[in-house]
Design a protein that fits this description.
This protein is about 70% helix and about 0% strand. It is mainly α. This is Tetratricopeptide repeat 28-like protein.
């Protein structure tokens, strides 16, 4: 929570690069924090560094959110497919 507050304060002061660093530090401690992730995206969108970068924040959002429901469903589907192949004798023999 401290990193989020620091990031918001730095954004308010117009120090977007420093805000990005604060949000990134927070995400290093708590990678599943949606609040920190949204703050980081907002800071990146407002940052003058955005124009210099070829990467968009969306790429980072997709990577961080990949631990969500869709990813779990994909893992479960792959597991069911592996179990099916194993039962059919196509793997593990």
């Amino acid at each position: 929570m401290a990193y989020f507050r620091q990031g918001v304060a730095l954004q308010y002061l117009g120090r977007h690069a420093d805000a990005l660093a604060a949000f990134a530090s927070g995400l290093a401690q708590d990678p599943k924090s949606l609040q920190l992730l949204v703050g980081m995206v907002e800071a990146a969108m407002k940052s003058p560094l955005r124009a210099a970068s070829h990467e968009t924040p969306d790429r980072h959002v997709k990577a961080s959110v990949s631990h969500g429901k869709a990813s779990r469903q994909k893992r479960e589907k792959r597991q069911r497919e592996r179990e099916k192949r194993w039962k059919e004798g196509k793997i593990g023999t």
